Amino acid sequence: MQLDMLHLHSFLRWAIVLAGIWAVIRSLKGVTGKTPFTAADSKAGLFFMILCDLQLLVGLVLLFFVSPLAKAGLADMGAAMKSPALRFFTVEHEVMAVIAIALVHIGKSKIKKAASDAQKHKLGLIFFGLALVVILALIPWPFREALGKGWF
User: What keywords appear on the UniProt entry (predicted)?
Assistant: First the structure.
């Protein structure tokens, strides 16, 4: 069960990165090309948001029910704060994930309320771009010595 959930979480990571890049590129093209805000632009943000929400659910299951690493960190927060890997997977990863998801949701909401196409693209670029940067920072990349978990 733990390995299945971890693999799902890792797979969703790549889907989110691709969806985030897609949403940012669509917004960037809209800002630089001064193009109308289309249904494809809206769908790019929507898919990004849906995948982030799904990832949050999987991550919460891992955090509270499945992952022995997270359970160890939650059981002794003092020890978790002294260990870079435990601190990352018990506190930092989750906080950054919530910030990223909040940015995506706020951006999607502000885009709906924006009056002009140019404003919609600009808001998408700002909020989806910031969310993507945070997401890239919260991934336990293989080159991060204490955290590296592999590419998949």
Answer: Membrane, Transmembrane, Transmembrane helix
